[in-house]
Amino acid sequence: MKLRQTHPIEVAAAKADISRATGYRISQDPRLPSQKAQPRERRRPDPLEAIFDAEVVPLLKEAPGLRPVAILEEILRRHPELSSGIRRTLERRIRSWRAQHGADQDVIFRQVHEPGRMGLSDFTDLSAVGVTIAGQPLAHLLFHFRLPWSGFEHAHVILGGESHVALAEGLQNALWSAGGAPHQHRTDSLSAAFRNLDAATEADLTKRYEALCAHYRMAPTRNNRGVAHENGSIESVHGHLKAAIRDALLMRGTPDFPDLAGYRAFVDEVVGRRNAARAKRIAAERAYLQPLPANRTTDFEEVIVTVSSTGGFTLRKVFYTVPSRLIGHRLRVRLYDDRLEVFMGGTQLLTLPRGRAHSDGRHDQVVNYHHVIHALRKKPMALLNLVYRDKLFPRPAYRRAFEALSAQLPEKMACKITVDLLALAHDRGCERELADELERVLGTSSLPDPVTLRRLFGPDPADLPSISVLPVALDSYDALVAACVGEFA
Known about the structure:
By secondary structure, the protein is an alpha/beta fold. Helices cover 42% and strands 15% of the residues. The strands form four sheets. The chain has a five-stranded mixed β-sheet with strand order 5-4-1-6-7, with helices on both faces. The longest helix has 21 residues, at 232-252.
């Protein structure tokens, strides 16, 4: 059209690289083809024309949270002549109506993060990954800490629930791994940190959590109760970390680990690779973190227990065995997430793996056969109806041996032989080797013979010769001294 102002139509069309006919058409009607198109009219009758405003809109106003599929079912119930094929049309109409007349929705406000200002903590369930320890499924959580400015992450495997002990241990591990502490520590409404039944947020801080943050000079903060996206800088990263762990397990070829320490080292390696990709930014943020205190604070819970005549104590619905010499003594027990450390006064006596009650409230037991085998030798029939009999066997082979013996021998004989097998494993220190031999014997449909097994696993200590060493009189050395003096003289 600009060329047409100074040239004839033929010349302007040639200069614009269009045909002469197109030039004449544009001169008569300069509108674009899209501007000339007529709106498409409805090709079939509107099935919702008489229903939407009269029946659907009142439902949407009365109950804004109604799902379109529920409204569809109600409309089809009222109007059986309608087809279920109107579902997509109804969903589009509802979506359009809500966009124009619906309630206001919550808005997520993206935040500007400053280096060293805030650290975020949360727990996430990792049981679905399918990790096993020595063939047994591992139900566990992952404590996840993150510095949002640099993206620094730390993860710690948690065997129990969202307890204060797990929070304290995981958080301190994260801070010492980061090399400093942020000025604020933010969580969601963790029961490990807050009393969620209290009314005022300021009163929700538990004393232990407040003391933990004060030790590292961090101000404890929390997001609004039930609003997870306010902790979005770590909530959204949960999925990425779990996906990275799942991919690493697939690359590894098996989700089975020989022990818990090996699995924890595997998780640390995955997180370490993710941190390596942000190494420069993490190093820059470390300059803004607060220096760490001289030492860690308590990351355990301390309880006083008394050892009963049953050779153990009950704590948090779990019975633990200890050496029988401690019966009647009061012990100080430190509860960690994965272990118990038992003290008498200031002396640590032993470390026990931590057990947990069943989800249905039933009690559980953590039993070490070394603690009770000396008493069980005197009362082998006690094994028959022992409350923690299944937990007494250190390996499945011993349980299978007892079941085979019970099926073919009298109860008294079966109990005596089983106790002898446990005593043999205790005395000779051959628990694993004896279990392998029991598996071999049971595989041949035979019963284990304690006499043969004693010969196989070394001589009986009672049969070893006793060697007595006579003390030497000290005055016998005087002759040697005199001889040496005479020789030098």
